[in-house]
């Protein structure tokens, strides 16, 4: 269970901002592709961080992004250490965020249902 205090929330947001900048400017691995960091969850002791991301592309592109992010986790953590003013920097664990994709799919289903209701005669 993640600590939900204001300091932990601020740290998670700072990690997300800094990592997004590092990925954009310093990570040269093309396998990462076009990703967006959508959130960070810290463990209660702040030694581990789950970093959620979304990516453009199909399942194959998503797998390549996951492999590249896992491979670059040490580099990203060391770069993050330069940006953060904390004594320790959490281990980074990347997870694909399916909520955006799921929301888009639900929205499309709702739109289709509404459109089919409009075309049915009373």
Shape: elongated
Number of helices: 3
Alpha-carbon Rg, integer: 18 Å
Helix content: 40-55%
Q: Roughly what fraction of the amino acids lie in strands? A: 15-25%
Oligomer: single chain
Give structural notes.
The chain has 122 residues and is of the alpha+beta class. It is 54% helix and 18% strand. The chain has a 3-stranded mixed beta sheet with strand order 1-2-3, with helices on one face. α1 packs across α2 (59-83). The protein is elongated, with a radius of gyration of 18 Å.
Please write out the topology.
Blueprint: H1 6-25, E1 35-42, E2 48-55, H2 59-83, E3 91-96, H3 99-119
Parallel strand pairs: 2-3
Antiparallel strand pairs: 1-2
List keywords for this structure.
122 residues, alpha+beta, three-stranded mixed sheet, 3 helices, 54% helix, 18% strand, elongated
